[in-house]
Amino acid sequence: MASHAELEAQIDRWRGYVQRSQAISPADVDELEDHLREQIADRQATGLDDEEAFLVAIKRMGNLHAVSHEFAREHSDRLWKQLVLVPEGPDGANTPPWRELAVVLGLAVGAGVAVKAGMAWIDDGAALMRNLCLLVFPFLAAYFAWKRRFSGAVAGTLIGSFAVLALALNLFPFVPGGSTQMLAAVHAPVILWLLVGVAYVGGRWRSGQRRMDFVRFTGELAIYYTLLALGGAVLIALTLAILRVIGTDFEPVLEGWILPFAVPGALVVATWLVEAKQQVVENIAPVLTRVFTPLTVVMLLVLLAALATLGGFVDIDRNLLILMDAILVLVLCLLLYSISARDPLAPPGLFDALQLVLVAAALAVDAVMLTAMLTRIAEFGFSPNKVAALGLNLLLLVHLLRAAWLAAGFLRSRRRFAAVERWQTEYLPVYGVWATVVVLVFPPVFGFV
């Protein structure tokens, strides 16, 4: 059998996975590899190329040997998904492209209509801000409901959750300009996005692999939506410039019609693009994480140096604390996306060490933030904003501490990367629980102020 670099790399990945099983001796691994190569050679003799031959061979090996099947199952979101696993939907693969495009465009227009109607019916700006994501995210969930064909129980749970959240956001007697109202508006999108995640995984939220798929999807969606937004901004700027030259005022149409439809509609379209072109973004993801991880480490170190120059924690401005929390959340998102984009079978490397440095720097910043918050609470007392920020920082502290511990063990070859990945997916629901507490419990506890 002719040797090809990509094929040999795939076989090496398979062999490395099989070798991790303590129940298989080196001699057995050699025998299994010989059998795999024979299967590949047989498939190539029928005219299949390297990739197709490897896929079919892995499929056959999966039927013959449990470890090979587990290897194929773990990589279900990558190269061999279509041959090893049963499709997620009964007819998703047979859906004509034009039909899916029609569904996507219909949902995109529906999201735009919902936002436009909300802007017309809701006069209060704060109320509109509380409901904005509630007007858009159900359309994303509806797309996945159509795509995944999940059960009525899952659909009922999602509809009920959306309804409870909508009632709370609109029936609670929030004091105008109060803190709990702003906290509800900020934390409601977290709950809504996790509900979209439940729809994305087809209700199989207990599956750690499916939760990691959703993390990967979230990062890829952010990339696509940003690209669409940048392209749309360029087109709009050029259109405005041309119409100004000829004396036409285009801004009322832009603000009243184009943006209310384009912004939510582009989110639905970007969701569809991620589903349709996932393999393209998977090539971009490792590049992005390797570019932004070192830059983020430098940024955190600069922030730590700047914070060290401050006289005392009480003097730290509350706006600075909010910005620092936003940076920590951004670091967490980068960490999750980096883990989702990594090959779980690859050995520890330099980039894994850099990620550990990133987590350590984030922990140092979080420790400074917690100290500052506790100092301010001791000085000025409790408030909804302070309790919410304190809770978030404590959640981040636990998350990052455990992530650092597991990453250090992986670098020392004492743990498999699966343990690092599993911790991220197991901890994700905790943020949803905290956001639910902030939205549903904080307002009545603090008197809706």
Automatic annotation (TrEMBL):
It comes from the Bacteria. Keywords: Membrane, Transmembrane, Transmembrane helix. The chain crosses the membrane at residues 101-122, 128-146, 153-175, 181-201, 222-245, 257-274, 295-314, 320-341, 353-375, 387-408, 428-446. NCBIfam families: perm_prefix_1 (NF038403). This is DUF4153 domain-containing protein.
